[in-house]
Design brief:
Largest sheet: 8 strands, mixed
Strand content: 25-35%
CATH superfamily: (Glycosyl)asparaginase
Radius of gyration: 17 Å
CATH topology: Glutamine Phosphoribosylpyrophosphate, subunit 1, domain 1
Distance between the termini: 16 Å
Shape: globular
CATH class: Alpha Beta
């Protein structure tokens, strides 16, 4: 149930906020469910929360239904520039890439930034060069645009996990907004905006109008309410109210608290998500 229950392991994933076309809704649900089932299996097998959110987001990046990795939107020049972040609540660290081009799985590069550089974020040409230096395969723009050739209008993806050791991690990945100016960066790769995670507290991943989400530091707002003693659902609801009151922007957020309780909220027509606790059957919503 929303906002209730204590779990040993817990996972929630999202496939973006917005209005999903009727012909895509079944694909969106299926994609979220499959990603959550993948993550659940990994958690039950003893995988770390960090590994789980990376693998889950990679699965969503590989699914052209979503606006991330393969299936990303093109910018105003017809190029694909992607943003991603991964947050390790156990170490209090994160890695991010912004406006990266020609990689299939930006979340993997974000983790490499965290683990193989002294930096937290790389962007643009520097991020793309780093990916090639680390051995990531160069992927042509045409492949990243997916089968529809232009990517969906929505479908930023994210995940938050709690593992059996009590560690929390979160990740978010996006192709950005359609026809954005080259170099535009949204909330997704920014710590405290697109994602946050902290052991003993919880984690969150945001999606929607990136400019509005940045103005309220959406994921950080959730963390603030968790720190104030709210459970996951209360924190999501309060952060969404901040978004609506302060910006009027449209978006959504998913989160976990330290007990593995699930929370989610959105001001858009749809928020695609799936979640599970321990061995429970995956629950999906759109």
């Amino acid at each position: 149930m929303r906002g209730t229950g204590i779990a040993t392991t817990s996972l929630i994933v999202h496939g973006g906020a917005g209005i999903f076309r009727t012909d895509l809704q079944d694909l969106v649900r299926e994609g979220c469910i499959r990603a959550a089932e993948l993550g659940q299996g990994l958690l039950l097998g003893g995988a770390s929360a960090l590994d789980v959110v990376e693998r889950v987001v990679m699965a969503l990046e590989d699914n052209p239904t979503f606006n991330s990795g393969t299936g990303s939107c093109a910018n105003a020049q017809g190029e694909v520039e992607m943003d991603a972040i991964i947050v390790d609540g156990a170490r209090g660290d994160f890695g991010a890439v912004a406006a990266i081009r020609h990689v299939k799985n930006p979340v993997r590069v974000a983790r490499a930034v965290m683990e193989h550089t002294p930096h937290c974020m790389l962007m643009g040409r520097g991020a793309s060069s780093f990916a090639l230096e680390r051995g990531f395969e160069s992927t042509p723009t045409e492949e990243l645009l997916g089968e529809r050739g232009s990517g969906p209008d929505h479908g930023t993806v994210g995940a938050v996990a709690l593992d059996a050791q009590g560690h929390v991690a979160a990740a978010t990945s996006t192709g950005g907004t359609r026809d954005k100016l080259p170099g535009r960066v949204g909330d997704s790769p920014i710590i405290g905006c697109g994602a946050i995670a902290e052991d003993g507290l919880g984690g969150a991943s945001a999606t929607g109008d990136g400019e509005a989400l940045m103005r309220v530091m959406m994921a950080g707002a959730v963390a603030g309410y968790l720190r104030a003693g709210r459970n996951a659902q209360e924190a999501a609801d309060l952060a969404l109210q901040d978004l609506k009151t302060r910006t009027g922007g449209l978006g959504g957020v998913i989160c976990l608290d330290a007990s593995g309780r699930i929370g989610f909220a959105h001001s858009t027509t749809h928020l695609a998500l799936a979640y599970t606790h321990d061995r429970a059957e995956v629950v999906s919503r759109l």
